[in-house]
Structures
1.
Amino acid sequence: MKRFFQHLYDARVWIISQFILTAFFIFLAWLAYPETFTVLILVMVLMSGLLLLVPIGYLMRKEKVVQKAFRIFLAEPELENEQYLARFVSKSNSKLIQQLGETLREKEDRLTQQNLEVSDYETYIEEWVHEIKKPLSLLTLILDNRSDEMSALVRQRTTHARNEIQNDVEKILYFSRLRTVHRDYLFERVALRAVFEEAIAENASLIAESDLTISIEGNDISVTSDRRSLLFILAQLIHNSAKYAGKGAHLSVRIEEKEAIIVTFHDNGPGISARDLPFIFDKGFTGGRAKATGMGLYLAQRIATDLNIQLVAETEEGLRMSLVIPK
């Protein structure tokens, strides 16, 4: 019924014209045949109604066919579907349909080409990650078995370089996981202090290289989360302070329980400008720092969102990062 009234509204000019014409003929019939005026009025009104309803019914039926043809054409803008749709429209509109089909097919070909390029790129990255693990494993083997043949400084620098490469590889793996629909999270009870100490141990060479000191306050509270992903987030926050707070900076970590579990990271570095703060978790944002990639905090934020954790940044006598974990 709604479509019927819509068609009436669309044909309002034609309907008004027909009404005026019918009224004019009724007036002529009244002048010429006053004795049969009533019968003539009924006939004229009936014919006007038929002339109104039949075309609208035909247009409604045709509209269904055109809409179906349009949906098929938009879903698959092939030449055959374009020609099928052109049968139901005027010649002037068929030229527009032809231009639309050419544009859609061109964009579809371009999109297919881009998807192939992205697929090739992802395949290359996956192969690169697989290949880079071989020299990393060899480097780890040398550090485990030949570290006594190195000086303390060489061993520290080599371990730091190895860990930096591992961290970059880890970021690539997590970034690729974000593109998948299913992510293999394993939720379990996790002791926050123990996970943080593990993150410190895994990044000991970076901490030593940047001369960063870390202190932990608060009880060892347990939460339900994915241990591996939580460890990655904590490692990225340590990396951020170690790299950008400056040599000899201090990072204080506080674990407290309120309405939620809150883990606060606060370093005494230069912080970040209020202008840049809203963009700190954006992909590729570096804040003008030449050695930054802008991926660590972006990935930390994305993974935190997946784990139902809120990651908040504030600049207050340094940089303050807070993990808000629901109980």
2.
Amino acid sequence: MNYITEILILLFLAITFLQSGYDKIVDWNGNVGWLKSHFANTFLEDKVPFSLGLILILEIIAGILSLAGIWFLFNNCKEIALYSGIVSCVTLLFLLFGQRIAKDYDGARTIVIYFIPAIFLVFLLK
């Protein structure tokens, strides 16, 4: 139980990103349609499918690394967990960027709630 805080944060990130990735896969067309209207009149309007695919890949990688990081922490190896935190932060920064471009300031504020534990994980593992 040397890494209980880190493990709990990794579980949080795994649930967050794997569920979000799953939702994007299951309802790809619904997500693309909603995001096209969300990014209407921005430079991202024509890049929604590509951007969504990029976010999907990052979320799946972050989620898998989070699960792997838990296993590695039980074996006293912090490196994979640290990579998980870094990929999670980068993913959330991409999402924050999109929300700010769309001028969805409430959505951007919500991303910060997820960013805090992710950056704390990086701080704990650095």
3.
Amino acid sequence: MNQPHLDPPEWYASLPTVYASAVVLFTDGSDRVLLVKPNYRPHWSLPGGVVEDGEAPHECAVREVAEELGLSIEVGDLLVVDWVPPGGDRPRSMANYLFDGGEISDLGAVRLQAEELEQAEFVAWEDAVARLPANTRRRIPAARAARRDGRTVYLPGTPEIG
């Protein structure tokens, strides 16, 4: 049985959609990870946010770092791509892109966006894992491995819950 072909606008409208976000990994001279504490949720995170319509993930990362930290950067390598299926309040899959931001030598250069963030702190890699929520914590060891091995890590599937 032949199905009629859809016109391009109808065909594109029929495709599934995915949410996307981008974050940046910064470390300091002691190889500690920069985390930020949003004022609108209880857990810490890496600097970053949701990709806007028509925006590339690396552009989102640059924009979010400028907004949240007051830093003008060029992101480095793509360290981690984390794909998470729909869950909880989120009805669609999420693709997160984690980029290397390099080293920040002076936390005093950071200007926190007061509307969204209440704190920024460098912490040990293990402490960063402990402070992140279960659905994002696996990105930290993956980013460390990606930096060490010089290759992007892909994290498919369902993350640890709890």
4.
Amino acid sequence: MSNANPVDHALIGYVRVSTLEQHEALQVDALRAAGCARLFTDKASGKLERRPALDALLEQLRPGDSVVVWRLDRLGRSLRHLIDTVQTLEHQGVAFRSLTESIDTTTPGGKLIFHVFGALAEFERDLIRERTMAGLTAARARGRTGGRPTVWTPEKLRVARQLLDSQEHDIAAIARVVGVSRASVYRALRRT
């Protein structure tokens, strides 16, 4: 536990290297030079959702602290993840700094840059959604529907209905005979 006065605001560094072959020395040196007394280090791919050191860092933050990274890509898995993480920090009263890109959310310029990033990420998400919907509409116009093809043939459906109507078989037995799951039997018989 630190002997620091609780009103002191800490610069806390976060280091991430993607592979075991990479070394964190460059990031550590830069963060120490920036004044970070504590560092949290993850040796994991940025694509991983859970990073233990980042989670530990986020749990220990206090309002007024600043999270410092060497480069933006060290913190976020994607632009959306980066923006969400920085917004979470902002809601906690924690600032964010990236040394390489010279972004500091305690300054008006730093806040502006992050709002622009957020707008771009939202625009990208909307474009993807729009393209997906247009593609689905075009496919439907050509008679194609999404999803897996049905395993139910008219013959299988007839057999399942006969077995159920005989009241000698339960749903599990019908599913085994027809070669489908119980849930599929329930859905198919509910539709007919």
